[in-house]
C-alpha cells in the first residue's frame, strides 16, 4: 500500500475539471450514468465494475476521468487517476494494490496496445477490482475493438462493462466551456472574444483551455482585461 500512497500523493486533480464544467447536451444522459456508476459502487455486486469511454483527442476524456475522481471524493470514496501515456514507461508493478481504492481511472489505454506486459497488468487489475467490488473507468481514443489490443482477455473486459462515446463539443458548447473556465478564474470572457479564440486558434478544447490559462496569466501580469487587441498583442507567436 506504500506504493499506492505515493501514487496518490503524486497525482493532483485539476480544480476546474468537474462534471459541472463539462458542457454538451449530448453528454447529459451518459454523465448521469457515470454518476450512478460511481454512487452505486458497493450496492450491487452484479452490476458491471467497469466503464469504457472513447473518443478522438480533445473530446474531453481526461476531463471526465478527473471529474469522476472529484465526484467520488465528494461521496467520501477514495480515487486515483493515472495516465497510461505516462505510467506505462514504468514497471507494471505500479498497478499492484490499486484494487483497494474505490475508483480507479486509467487514461489513454491505446498507449499499451502493443505492450503485452501492461495489457496483462490491466487485465489482472480488472479482475482484482471486480473481486473487491470496486470500480474502474478507462478511456481510449477508439472503440475497444479498434484499439489494436492484442490480449483477447483484456479486449473482452473492455467490451464487457458500460461503454460510451465522448463526442466533440460544437462551437456553442466550446464557447460556453471557455466562458465557464474564465468565470472560475474571476475573468469575464465576452462572446466576441471567445469566438475570436475559436476562429483564430486551434479548435481543440484542451488547446483552447491552455490558451485561456496563458491569457489569464498575461492579463494578471499586465493588469489588463482580455480583449481582442490584447490577444493579438500577447499571442502574436501562436
What does this 3D model show about the protein?
Helices cover 47% and strands 11% of the residues. With 238 residues, the chain is of the alpha/beta class. It folds into two domains: 2-165, 3-Layer(aba) Sandwich (Rossmann fold), CATH 3.40.50.300; 171-234, Helicase, Ruva Protein, domain 3 (Orthogonal Bundle). Helix 5 links the parallel strand 3 and strand 4 (135-140). Helix 7 (171-184) crosses helix 8 and helix 7 (171-184) runs parallel beside helix 9. The protein starts with a helix and ends with a helix.
Shape: elongated
Biggest sheet character: 5 strands, parallel
Number of helices: 10
Distance between the termini: 45 Å
- Which ranges are low-confidence, i.e. pLDDT below 50, for 5 or more consecutive residues? 1-10
Query: What pattern of helices and strands is seen along the backbone?
Result: HHEHEHEHEHEHHHH
CATH architecture grouping of the largest domain: 3-Layer(aba) Sandwich
> CATH homologous superfamily name of the largest domain?
P-loop containing nucleotide triphosphate hydrolases
State which percent range the strand residues make up.
5-15%
Alpha-carbon Rg, integer: 19 Å
Amino acid at each position: 500500500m506504500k506504493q499506492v500512497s505515493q501514487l496518490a500523493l503524486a497525482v493532483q486533480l485539476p480544480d476546474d475539471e468537474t462534471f459541472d464544467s463539462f458542457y454538451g447536451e449530448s453528454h447529459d444522459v451518459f454523465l448521469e450514468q457515470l454518476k450512478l456508476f460511481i454512487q452505486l459502487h458497493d450496492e450491487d455486486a452484479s452490476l458491471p465494475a467497469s466503464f469504457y469511454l472513447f473518443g478522438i483527442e480533445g473530446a474531453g476524456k481526461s476531463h471526465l476521468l478527473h471529474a469522476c475522481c472529484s465526484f467520488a471524493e465528494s461521496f467520501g470514496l477514495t480515487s486515483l487517476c493515472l495516465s497510461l501515456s505516462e505510467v506505462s514507461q514504468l514497471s507494471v508493478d505500479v498497478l499492484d494494490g490499486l484494487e483497494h481504492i474505490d475508483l480507479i481511472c486509467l487514461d489513454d489505454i491505446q498507449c499499451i496496445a502493443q505492450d503485452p506486459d501492461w495489457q496483462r497488468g490491466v487485465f489482472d487489475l480488472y479482475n482484482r477490482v471486480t473481486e473487491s467490488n470496486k470500480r474502474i473507468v478507462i478511456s481510449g481514443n477508439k472503440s475497444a475493438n479498434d484499439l489494436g489490443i492484442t490480449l483477447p482477455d483484456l479486449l473482452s473486459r473492455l467490451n464487457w462493462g458500460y461503454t460510451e462515446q465522448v463526442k466533440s463539443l460544437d462551437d456553442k458548447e466550446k464557447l460556453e466551456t471557455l466562458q465557464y473556465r474564465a468565470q472560475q478564474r474571476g475573468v469575464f470572457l465576452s462572446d466576441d472574444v471567445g469566438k475570436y479564440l475559436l476562429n483564430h486558434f486551434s479548435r481543440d478544447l484542451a488547446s483552447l483551455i491552455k490558451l485561456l490559462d496563458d491569457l489569464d496569466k498575461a492579463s494578471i501580469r499586465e493588469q489588463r482585461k482580455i480583449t481582442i487587441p490584447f490577444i493579438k498583442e500577447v499571442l502574436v507567436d501562436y
